[in-house]
Design a protein that fits this description.
By secondary structure, the protein is of the alpha/beta class. The chain has 17 helices and 20 strands. It folds into 4 domains: 345 residues, Alpha-Beta Barrel (TIM Barrel); 71 residues, Alpha-Beta Complex (Oligo-1,6-glucosidase, domain 2); 35 residues, no CATH class; 76 residues, Golgi alpha-mannosidase II (Immunoglobulin-like, Sandwich), CATH 2.60.40.1180. 27% of the residues lie in helices and 15% in strands. The strands form 5 sheets. The protein has an 8-stranded parallel beta sheet with strand order 11-10-9-5-2-1-13-12. The protein is globular, with a radius of gyration of 24 Å.
């Protein structure tokens, strides 16, 4: 690799290194502020690198820090090759890359190339119908027989994720452009090879600057359905991106990107966020022989607690359903491809509040047990900031408490449609993305050590009890348990590469499975409930000679599990 920044040369990247890695996601706006403006910044991340090295993670993934109007908190990019002043400067980012590498860690950038900001120079130029970049985006005339810009004149009836319509009228052009997320996020036309080449050049620029890979935002939406690319409407039934995802040229586009940027050639880590992807799609795009991506983010398991296509339509999630889904992905990618493992990220409510029990009695144990189960599956685990010491959902009880565009849009549309306010607020309290975006709780001081100013989002009041400083002092904390899990993955080839087999699939409290490699077998048993559970020893086998590798409780009853207790055992026979 040649680079104009020799000081930023990456740490060693042997082939397949990411299979043993643990990734830590940073949402920069909420991580650490250093200049007192209440917004996290890049120097703040650099200031916390020793903490992350102490935790033991291998890779830092930054949510977007590029220039952006911040319509969707940075996922609307106006300049891919500069840093937004909110977060610092390009020099600050160079320093972060170098400091990360100096500690033996790697750094991954968020890649948002399904769409740009409507303030990106590419889009500004495309608004001129005579521009060479007109075809870089999707432009369509008004529906036949309708006056452009009037209600009902949109090219079709498709809704956007954060707006009533996927089409926005541009008076300067006299036509509509496609933005399947919001009017501020127009979709790029990947059918145009000039678009693809521009994206490849931009990615190469970042690789030459020292980054070690990319997390690719909604990457399976870049190939649109043939009906749309040929000038027609979005196919009907596109709710939840169902008719847009996994288009006919997706594999071609990903393989071309891999080849042109040198993703495999330089052993960069790549993970594709893919809403609507099935096991079959994931298996295909992560098959090493196809040279597309290393892994994808599945969405199936985080959609199981909704009763319809809408995330806001809440439903109970029985443990057997969750176990079966993750086992399906384990089995589907067992001999080709690779899994990513996550419960938390910037788009999901806090895992301990969603899948665990965040009461004072059970928060620590349930956070540990959820982590044990996740990290002992086969794949690359992802830790979201604050997850490593058990941060919880925030007490957001009024619409004025929310800031996320998705949450505010849902409230507006749902209440206008007649859904009672209390029902809307209950859905937001359970599922809003804002829960993941409250500032990291570093200590018990005012504003949790996040900022000396006024934080952009209110700090969770439970920071006086739940914070990184307290967790680091406690050898039995969630933080200490995460450290042990990460060390176990680094040390154990069975954890990294062993075969997965689900046990007790119908048990409503116990999550049990084995990981087997050659003559070593690990048994994971976890009580994912807030009441004790009897161990079904007849089905698990004789465990008298089992060796405890890792556990969450000091006092263990061989015949039962306490509430939210988990154990990793080395067993001879089952």
């Amino acid at each position: 690799m040649t680079t104009d920044h020799p000081a930023l040369a990456p740490t060693s990247r042997p082939d397949g290194w990411w299979r043993s890695a643990v990734v830590y996601q940073i949402y920069p706006r909420s991580f650490q502020d250093t200049d007192g403006d209440g917004i996290g910044d890049i120097p703040g991340i650099t200031s916390r690198l020793d903490y992350l090295a102490e935790l033991g993670v291998d890779v830092l993934w930054l949510s977007p820090v590029y220039r952006s109007p911040q319509v969707d908190n940075g996922y609307d990019i106006s300049d891919y090759q500069d840093v937004d002043p909110l977060f610092g400067t390009l020099a600050d980012l160079d320093e972060l890359i170098a400091a990360t590498h100096a500690r033996g860690m790697k750094l991954v950038m968020d890649l948002v190339v399904n769409h740009t900001s409507d303030q990106h120079a590419w889009f500004t130029e495309s608004r001129d119908p005579a521009s060479a970049k007109r075809d870089w985006y999707y432009w369509r005339p008004a529906r036949e027989g309708h006056e452009p810009g009037t209600p009902g004149a949109e090219p079709d009836d498709s809704r956007a994720a954060f707006a009533p319509s996927a089409w926005t009228y541009d008076p300067a052009s006299g036509e509509y452009y496609l933005g399947i997320f919001s009017p501020g996020q127009p979709d790029l036309n990947w059918e145009n090879e000039d678009v693809r080449h521009a994206v490849h050049r931009m990615m190469r620029w970042w690789v030459d600057r020292g980054v070690d890979g990319f997390r690719m935002d909604v990457i399976n939406l870049i190939s649109k359905p043939a009906a749309l690319t040929s000038g027609g409407p979005i196919p009907a039934g596109a709710g939840g991106f169902g008719a847009i995802a996994n288009g006919p040229r997706l594999d071609e586009f990903l393989a071309e990107m891999n080849r042109e940027v040198g993703l495999d050639a330089e052993h960069l880590i790549t993970v594709g966020e893919m809403p609507g992807a099935t096991v079959e799609v994931a298996r295909r795009v992560t098959d090493p022989a196809r040279r597309e991506l290393n892994m994808v983010f599945t969405f199936e398991h985080v959609n199981l607690d909704q009763a319809s296509h809408s995330k806001w339509d809440l439903a109970d999630l029985p443990l057997p359903v969750l176990k079966a889904n993750l086992a399906h992905w384990q089995e589907g990618l067992a001999d080709a491809g690779w899994n990513s493992l996550y419960l938390d990220n910037h788009d999901q409510p806090r895992a301990v509040s969603r899948f665990g029990d965040d009461s004072p009695e059970h928060r620590v144990s349930s956070a540990k047990t959820l982590a044990t189960v996740l990290h002992l599956h086969k794949g690359t685990p992802y830790v979201y900031q604050g997850e490593e010491f058990g941060m919880t959902n925030a007490p957001l009880t009024r619409i004025e408490h929310y800031q996320d565009v998705e949450s505010l849009n849902y409230h507006t549309l749902a209440t206008a449609g007649g859904t009672p306010e209390e029902e809307v607020l209950a859905s937001l309290a359970a599922k809003s993305r804002d829960h993941a975006r409250t500032p990291v709780q570093w200590d018990a001081t005012d504003n949790a050590g996040f900022t000396t100013g006024t934080p952009w989002f209110a700090v969770n009041p439970d920071h006086t009890e739940i914070n990184a400083e307290a967790a680091r002092r406690d050898p039995d904390s969630v933080f200490a348990h995460f450290q042990r899990l990460i060390r176990l993955r680094h040390d154990s080839e069975t954890v990294r590469e062993g075969r997965f087999a689900l046990l007790l699939p119908d048990h409503e409290q116990i999550w049990a499975f084995t990981r087997t490699l050659e003559d070593e077998r690990l048994l994971v048993v976890a009580n994912c409930s807030s009441r004790p559970a009897e161990l079904p020893l007849q089905e698990l086998g004789e465990l008298d000679d089992a060796e405890l590798v890792l556990g969450t409780h000091a006092d263990r009853d061989p015949g039962r599990l306490a509430a939210w207790e988990s154990r990793v055992l080395r067993v001879r026979t089952l």
